[in-house]
Each structure stands twice: as C-alpha cells, then as structure tokens.
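Archive entry. Fields below.
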Amino acid sequence: MKITRKHFLQLSGLSLLAVIAKKLVRGAANVAASEAATKSTRWGMAIDLQKCRQKDGCGRCITACHTAHNVPQFTDRAHEIKWVWKQPFEDVFPFAQTEYTRDVFATAPVLLMCNHCDDPPCQDVCPVGATWRRDDGVVMMDFHRCIGCRYCMAACPYGSRSFNWQDPRPAISQVNPDFPTRTKGVVEKCNFCEERLARKLSPLCVEACGGKALVFGDLEQPDSEIRRTLGSRFALRRKPELGAGPSVYYLI
Amino acid sequence: MNDRPFIIAGLVVFVAFVTTPIWHGVATKNVALAAPAIKLPAQEKQCVAPVSYMRASHMQLLDEWRTDVVDAQNRQYVAYNGKVYDKSLTRTCLGCHGSRQEFCDRCHNYNGVAAVNCWECHNDAPPAGRNTP
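PREDICTED_STRUCTURE:
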C-alpha cells in the first residue's frame, strides 16, 4: 500500500493530537494526586481540665477505653496495666503551679494517656520495630512483634506504657471479642483508638466523656474544632522541653 | 571369626532399634489414618480464596492480612471473585468457620503442625454480628 502525502500528514496530525491529549490527562491526574498527598493529618487531643475537674471522681473515659480494649484489671499495682489513667496535678505539672494554687490544684486529677509524640522516643529504642509513628501521628504498636524487652517503657518520658507480667486474660472480666487481648511478656499502651479512626469514629474516651472535656481532631486542619480550641485557650503539654512533641494538650 | 555371634547379635539389636517406630505403629491400635472430619460452614459455600489455595497457603494469607492491617491500615480484602471482606481473624475467619477447636485445631493436631499461637491474644469466640457481606 502506498501512503500518499495527504494521508501521511493526516496521520502525523492525529498522532500529535493523541500525545497532547495524553499529556493533559496525565497532568490533571498528577495535580489531583499531589493535592491529596499534601493534605496530611495529625491527630491530637485537647483535655479541658476545668471541665474534667467538675466531674470529680468520674471515670467514664477510663472504663470505656479499658473495657473496649480488653485492658486487664490487676489489683496488685506492680502488675497494673493502664491505657488511660489519672494522676494528681502536682505529679503531672510540677512547675505549673504556685505556692498559692497548690492547695487547690495539687490533688486535682489530670487525665493521662499516650501522648502520640511527633518524635517518639519509644520508636527510636525499639529493637524489633514493634512501635512506630504513623503518618497521621498515631504511635502504633504491633503486639505480634513485641518481644517484651521494655526498652520503650524506659524511654517513654510519660510512663504511658505497661508491661504484661502475667497472662492478662484471667484479669479481664468481660472480653470484647472485637479487640484482641494481649499475652504475657508484651508491652501495651493507648492506640488513640486507631481501630475506630479507621471507621471515621473518634476515640472512645472522647465519646464517653459526659462533660465534653475531651476534644479530638486533626491538628493540621486550621478550621478543626481542636485547632479553634487550642487557638483560643492557653494549653500545656507534658514535658515539652524534651522535644518529643506530644499531641495531647491540657487546657488549664 | 570368633566374633561372629557378637556381630550378628549386635546387628539384630541395631535393626530392631532402628525399626522401633514400625513395631510401635504395628503394636498401637486405633491409629487414625483417615483425615479429620472438618466441619464446613453451613451458611457459606465460598471462602475468601479457592479451597486449594486456602489449604496450601492460608498461613501466608493470614500473615499478609496481619501486615496489611497493622502496618498499612488496609483492612479490606477484595477476594478473587470481587467480594470484599474484613481482614479479621475473629470476625471473618471464625465468623464462618465457627469453632477454632473444630476447624483449626483438628487439622493442625492431625498433621502435628504447631501453629503460631494466634489464640493467646485473638478471641476464638466470634461476636454475634458477622461483618462479612
């Protein structure tokens, strides 16, 4: 078959058009993808201590968390496992009080949990990579990989991690079948309810709090509730001088 | 040539010792050679992968599921036939197969395969509401 000059020019023109169309489509797709990629998330929490203090003695957040995550309740404090717990203000923020506020604040309970640090020291020391910071800021643990060396417990400046010295199962009154228990020789801690975040639900403690003292949200979103709260009220973080960068803020 | 009786006696003892497992097998009654009766789910006809694959490679699948869920937050499994499942040992696997003792353990015990101890942490009683489509 003989290609005429006219045919040749027509084919060339069509090929050129096809190439340009392909480039345009690719370009548009890339722009959309990069927009999605730069929209990062960093989960954080703000705990309103004023509201929390109003309901003194309430432990709904702790109960909700510990029942859902099959956290064992050992009576012996040496074996205690805790994901969320309370400690006196004096212990948590020893330098954030004056001699005059001491009477009022010293024994006021402060709600504590894993701070889900920006630069978690527990991740740095883990020899088996059983703990790591996810891109959305949640400090995750893989119980399968944990060998129970407890380096992370030594490294964590907040005491957020507990070790299972014995089989936790007998100390769980009602096992929640939707969450695994742990086994003897494994470290555990708060996971920011990552199993709920995957279903676009907020953590259980936030949901359980009757006084709405806990605000959870994306710290990277300027219009999120947590950012508005943190932008309008004075907040403390635990031991910021260590540079770990906690994601849990305390509204004083 | 004077050692011949000793050598023969020694050989007899040796052969008897080496073949002990055979004699032991002959002497033991009730050797279950038939494969264990595996109870198949009544309400579901199709697993997340073809039976041949599940028989040979369920451990790889479970390992991948674990890595996907814990490391990559990827919790949905799209099966070869397009069905979508939750990557969950308790909910999805036991949701159909019901009992760990009657399904997993029977085969593992029969084959003398010590599995990784899944059930020290994972719950072997599936919750009532099954999550699979």
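CURATOR_NOTE: Chain B has a mean pLDDT of 86.
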